[in-house]
Design goal:
Elements lengths: L9 H18 L4 H8 L3 H9 L6 H10 L4 H11 L18 H12 L2 E6 L10 H11 L4 H20 L4 E7 H5 L5 H17 L2 E6 L14 E5 L7 E5 L4 E4 L2 H17 L3 H13 L1
Parallel strand pairs: 1-2, 2-3
Antiparallel strand pairs: 1-4, 4-5, 5-6
Helix pairs in contact: 1-3, 1-6, 4-5, 7-8, 10-12
């Protein structure tokens, strides 16, 4: 599990714990009523623990996991997760009234993940956007008032800047050629964004691949943009994809495996990292 700090987001932490508690209960084939009888915790409270509506107390988490027959090592890890300082003020609290809960949860999950894979067919991934590029996208999408657009662009940039501070996060992204070719705002904004992608590609901490039409059909056609997050320590991976004004979090293991299979297909088809770097340099020189 990535290092927990005072800036962990409580919304994402509660959501992730709730998913794990629900998974272990179902694996043990226990109903909420049966679990309530075994643990002495009321059924409504157990339901709230699984939904992530309220903070899950470490002692309650331990009782539930033991009742579900979870191995001691996994119990210890999840109890430690529940004991993380989720009451601290998260870094994104400044934008709490602006960003929707689904996006806040996703960003918070990235903060706890060990590995992240993203596929972006039409835009540069948010974690790799420059400030000017983020501002251009925010203005263009039309979902924010002019007075909100600047603030949301600042949120995008703050999110991107935190990637550099997360030395333990392994980030791999496949970007559609359309995202590279799209003119955001003006040529200078695009040029600066290309330069940033080149710098990131050379840095070694982020793996960037570009997927061109001539690379052939791929399995993400019906999915579009998506992300895969892996957390380690027995916590199941999560897939994430955005809708127009909402998002879908996938944590069923069979369904997540489908996304993993698609991610493997994209990595195989896209330009290898070294060729991607040459491609980006050629685009910059055009």
């Amino acid at each position: 599990m990535a290092t927990m700090d005072d800036q962990i987001d409580p919304l994402a932490l509660r959501w992730l714990l709730g998913v794990e508690l629900s998974r272990h209960r179902r694996t043990a084939q226990l109903s909420l009523s049966e679990l309530a009888t075994t643990t002495g915790i009321g059924k409504p409270k157990l339901g709230h623990m699984e939904s992530g509506r309220y903070h899950q107390a470490p002692g309650d988490v331990q009782l539930v996991l033991r009742a579900c027959g979870v191995p001691p090592e996994s119990v210890e890890q999840l109890v430690a997760l529940a004991d993380a300082r989720a009451d601290a003020k998260p870094w994104l609290s400044r934008w709490a009234d602006l960003i929707p809960d689904f996006l806040r949860t996703y960003v918070g999950l990235i903060g706890m993940a060990e590995r992240l894979f993203t596929f972006e067919p039409m835009i540069v991934p948010g974690l790799l956007q420059t400030g000017a590029y983020a501002q251009a996208l925010t203005v263009a999408n039309g979902f924010f008032r002019p007075d909100q657009a600047q603030s949301f662009a600042e949120f995008r940039q703050a999110r991107a800047s935190r990637l550099a501070a997360r030395q333990e996060l392994v980030f791999h992204t496949v970007i559609g050629e359309a995202a590279i070719r799209t003119l955001a705002n003006d040529p200078s904004t695009r040029q600066a964004q290309l330069e940033h992608l080149i710098d990131v590609s050379r840095g070694g901490r982020v793996t960037v691949q570009v997927l061109r039409p001539e690379d052939g059909p791929h399995q993400a056609t019906a999915i579009g943009q998506f992300a895969l997050l892996e957390f380690g320590h027995g916590i199941r991976p999560v897939a994430y994809t955005e809708l127009l004004d909402d998002a879908v979090f996938v944590h069923d293991l069979d369904r997540v495996r489908t996304y993993q299979w698609v991610a493997d297909n994209l990595r195989k088809l896209a330009l290898p990292p070294a060729e991607t770097l040459s491609y980006l340099q050629a685009e910059l020189a055009r």
